[in-house]
Amino acid sequence: MLALGADFVLIGRPFIFASAAMGTAGGDHLMTILKAELSGAMAQLGCRTVADLPSFLYAPNPG
Fold first, then answer.
1. Is residue 1 part of a domain?
2. Is 29 buried (19+), middle (13-18) or exposed (0-12) by CB count in 10 A?
3. Which pLDDT tens digits describe the chain residue by residue (63 residues)?
4. Is this structure's pTM higher than 0.70?
5. Is the dihedral of CA 29, 24, 10, 8 positive or negative?
6. Going by C-beta distance under 8 Å and a sequence separation of 6 or more, which residues neighbour residue 33?
7. At what angle do helices 24-45 and 12-22 cross, to 10 degrees?
8. Residue 1: CB partners within 8 Å, gap ≥ 6?
């Protein structure tokens, strides 16, 4: 998870599928979609960067 400090997430399979379907344009299009999804989710949380994510979003619930 990015919120836990991951440097990257595994997107290999979708990237291969997109590239196989549309070539280089497919990979570019996939990255555009993923970037927009991440930006939208972060905006809904009120965060500009991954570092802004509040700890309660990823801290285990003790109860």
1. no
2. middle
3. 666 666 667 778 888 999 999 999 999 999 999 999 989 988 998 888 877 877 766 666 665
4. no
5. negative
6. none
7. 140
8. 9, 58
Domain-embedded: residue 29: yes
In this structure, what token pair is assigned to residue 45? Answer: 């949380």
HEC per residue, 1-63: CHHHCCCCCCCHHHHHHHHHHHCHHHHHHHHHHHHHHHHHHHHHHCCCCHHHCCHHHCCCCCC
Residue 39, in any domain of the structure: yes
* C-alpha count within 13 angstroms, C-beta hemisphere, residue 35: 6
